[in-house]
Specification:
With 290 residues, the protein is an alpha/beta fold. It has a single domain, classed as Alpha-Beta Barrel (TIM Barrel), CATH 3.20.20. The chain contains ten helices and ten strands. The strands form two sheets. The chain has an eight-stranded parallel beta sheet with strand order 3-2-1-10-7-6-5-4. Helix 1 runs parallel beside helix 2, helix 2 runs parallel beside helix 3 and helix 3 packs parallel to helix 5. It is globular.
């Protein structure tokens, strides 16, 4: 396994500069969050061309790229993380799928690898209430069926590109826990469909023991996100400012011989990006040794 850093924590930097800084601080990977300022995915041809331009730069810097798709307002300037793979609107779902397919093409331009994605929240949980009664929640069975179908469409595009998917359970979204991820993975039933595990989310939700989850799902683990966090509060914090314990987490990663990225995700700390790069690397490096 190797340390990586998410570019959503360098949002105030040009992407070329961000890559240089990540490598200078000793990281061997970069988690590229596609957004309007970094590899804008709303123009596939341009995004892929930019990725091809950057590929020799990442190679020279010794960085392995993974692709992240958590940009907040890339598809809707008014509603965070909307539309989703479970939106009522077929057109909305199609826009999200198209975005994720673009992410797969960008991943291919960097040589393949993993694209991370999530379910999004059900419409009733995110849309402003209309006049009168709140929007009725849809049956869970319908949402699972819709999500499974949407994921399969993305997989159909990923397969010929040599790209894998890492699905991330996310607090506040339809798939928020590892048990719900397991249910989705069983329904999708595809070897290219794996797990992106943000250990902070497990801690935030009190969703069991992160180390136990790692040992149980080591074979499907394709991507790991880290930061610090306080239980019950979904806020990615610099290391040492939360109440997480990392020794058992890394012991489990070593036990399952995990070989992928450990990506630091500090999206609210772009104003102190250089300091965050250095502090995070210094904190995590001792855990990288068995």
């Amino acid at each position: 396994m190797y340390l990586s850093y998410n570019t959503n924590g360098l949002a105030y930097h040009r992407l070329d500069d961000a890559l240089t800084l990540i490598a200078e601080h000793g990281y061997r990977g970069v988690a590229l969050t596609l957004d309007h300022h970094h590899l804008d995915p709303t123009d596939r041809e341009r995004a892929v061309a930019e990725a091809k331009r950057l590929r020799p730069i990442t190679a020279r810097l010794g960085l392995t790229a993974t692709i992240e798709t958590g940009a907040r307002f890339i598809l809707d300037p008014r509603r965070k993380h909307q539309p989703t793979l479970i939106s009522r609107s077929p057109a909305g779902r199609a826009r999200r799928i198209e975005f994720l397919v673009t992410a797969c093409h960008v991943a291919r331009a960097f040589g393949g690898g993993c694209v991370s994605l999530w379910s999004g929240a059900a419409d009733a949980a995110t849309s402003p209430e209309p006049a009168g009664a709140p929007e009725a929640a849809e049956p869970e069975k319908a949402l699972f069926a819709r999500l499974t179908a949407s994921v399969r469409q993305v997989l159909d595009a990923a397969r010929p590109l040599g790209v894998t998917l890492g699905f991330e359970p996310e607090p506040g979204m339809f798939i928020d826990t590892l048990a719900r991820y397991d249910r989705l993975a069983a329904a999708v039933d595809d070897p290219l469909f794996g797990l992106t595990l943000d250990v902070t989310h497990v801690h935030c939700l009190g969703d069991g023991d992160p180390a136990a989850h790692i040992r149980r799902r080591g074979a499907s683990l394709g991507n790991v996100h880290v930061a610090d966090m306080r239980r019950g509060v979904h806020d990615h914090l610099p290391f040492g400012e939360g109440d997480m314990c990392f020794e058992p987490i890394f012991a489990a990663l070593h036990d399952v011989a995990y070989a992928g990225p450990i990506s630091v995700e500090l999206p609210r700390h772009g104003h102190v990006a250089v300091e965050s790069l250095a502090r995070s690397f210094a904190f995590l490096t001792p855990f990288m040794r068995p």
